[in-house]
Amino acid sequence: MKLISKVFFCTTLLWNFLSPALAQTTTGQNQKSYSNREILVVGNPKSPNFSPLPGAEKEAVSIAKLFHTQALVGDAATETAVVQRLTQARIIHLATHVLPEAGVIVLAPSAQDDGLLTAEEIQELHLKADLVVLSGERTALGKITGDGVIGVARSLMAAGATNIIGTLWSVSEQSTAKFMMEFYRQLQKTGDVAGALRQASLKMKQENPNSRDWAAFTLIGSPK
């Protein structure tokens, strides 16, 4: 808890100093509307080598309803199906296992793929996403190398994604789902990714002072 408190303290200072700058990275998204085809929501892909995430599936279905679209869940969330839609999506929400050190997003396997979307495969995509949300455990982390931290978030940015939201530590499925729903409600109001993340954090803080359940969510932005 001491480590988490220190991280939260540093995060709070960063928000105070950087929120205006971060907001500038998303100013162009204000009042932007998206078609159903531009929203990709994935939850609880069925994989034989990973535990099921029923909470992530409920989260995905709820978020999809907010955007009046259909979530890809369970067996339907294959690597092939997801990749086919990734390059067309402007908002991407992935509620699944992520292996930060290996740089892998876990999806459902099919006859055409192994269900493991690797960092190398991600970098070969041509994304136009304004936002990618990695809703899972420690999804903002990666492997420290001589070239810096290499992980899924960095690969998504290299592929063209503008903003990525990930987590710094594990958060319960229930708390994650609640946070994400509040975040997307705020995002629909303003179109401001940084502002929506901050407002969701403040709302969760009011309801639950335990920073472990809401301070883990972080934004990595790349203005275009």
TrEMBL record:
InterPro entries referenced in this protein's UniProt entry, alphabetically: CHAT_dom
Keyword set includes Kinase: no
UniProt keyword terms in alphabetical order: Signal
Signal peptide annotation: 1-23
Residue stretches making up the CHAT domain: 25-222
A Pfam family of this chain: CHAT
Superkingdom of origin: Bacteria
Protein name stated in the entry: CHAT domain-containing protein
